[in-house]
Design brief:
- By secondary structure, the chain is an alpha/beta fold.
- The chain is about 55% helix and about 10% strand.
- A 5-stranded parallel β-sheet has the order 5-4-6-7-8. A 3-stranded antiparallel β-sheet has the order 1-3-2.
- A hairpin with a 2-residue loop joins strand 2 and strand 3.
- Helix 2 packs parallel to helix 7 and helix 4 packs across helix 5.
Length: about 280
């Protein structure tokens, strides 16, 4: 797995933190210096942390597990959706639905409701409804799609959360902590990193900063998915080889042997029929 490029992080502005007066003292280990009242993040530490997080994400993906990306900031919505979709992972870029993790069965019911509406639309059932009823259902479907469409394929709890701005998405972080789900977080100088399992100290406001971090992490996830495919292919090949060896190991009868066995098999019933007559 390729290491994160320091220069790319620098050019993307990952090192720009918040104003000094807004800082969280817990982020002190990741701050390099202060310039013009703004904290500068130590990108050497950011590089190490991104590589650690990427390796962990790769392992999760290799096991076939899901990683839920969360970020509802307007400026980062598109890039989160794009990167998560590229590796076939679920994401939340609208308002975080409270209880999404801690009350997951209820969220699944809402997703099923959306699927049922789609089914009714396809089979023509809605043709008998009035325009007003049809409009209400259409609006309900649009609302469900906006909030839950990106997690429609999430049939079970995710194995990890990747959060952009852990302070803004604190409810999501709390729910994950409560369930023991590991949290990967892009943490700025104004945030508290104590509840984050994999801390990535960086600017969480700029689109370019978020994009370069997601590029590195999603590349690692893609590698994990490819390795999983390769492992499955190897397992299938090994199974096919084992079956072929079993077939080859079975003794093959020659044509002559089959001819010699046939008269013997036919003679057996005749002998059995003759036995009572002899008595």
């Amino acid at each position: 797995m390729a290491r994160t490029n320091f220069e790319q992080l620098l050019q993307a502005g990952c090192h720009f933190g918040h104003l000094k007066r807004k800082w969280n003292p817990a982020m002190a280990p990741y701050i390099y210096t202060e310039r013009n009242g703004i904290h500068i993040i130590d990108l050497h530490k950011t590089v190490v942390k991104i590589d650690d997080a990427a390796e962990a994400l790769k392992n999760i993906a290799r096991q076939g597990k899901k990683i839920l990306f969360v970020g509802t900031k307007k400026q980062t919505k598109e890039v989160i959706a794009e990167k998560a979709t590229s590796v076939n992972m679920p994401y939340v870029i609208e308002r975080w639905p409270g209880g999404m993790l801690t009350n997951f069965p209820t969220i699944r019911k809402a997703v099923k409701k959306m699927a049922n509406i789609d089914k009714l639309m396809q089979d023509g059932t809605f043709g008998n409804l009035s325009k007003r009823e049809l409009l209400q259902i259409t609006r309900q479907r649009a609302k469900l799609e906006k909030n839950l469409g990106s997690i429609a394929d999430l049939t079970r709890l995710p194995s990890a959360l990747f959060v952009i701005d852990v302070m803004k998405e604190n409810i999501a972080v709390k729910e994950a902590n409560r369930l023991g789900i590991p949290v990967f977080g892009v943490v700025d100088t104004n945030s508290d990193p104590k509840n984050i399992d994999y801390i990535i100290p960086a600017n969480d406001d700029a689109k370019d900063s978020v994009e370069v971090i997601l590029n590195a992490c999603c590349t690692a996830i893609a590698e994990g998915l490819e390795e999983r495919k390769a492992e499955k292919a190897d397992e299938k090949a090994a199974e096919a080889q084992a079956e072929a060896e079993v077939v080859e190991a079975k003794p093959k009868r020659t044509r002559k042997a089959r001819k010699e066995e046939a008269p013997a098999e036919e003679a057996a019933p005749v002998a059995e029929e003759a036995a009572p007559a002899a008595e």
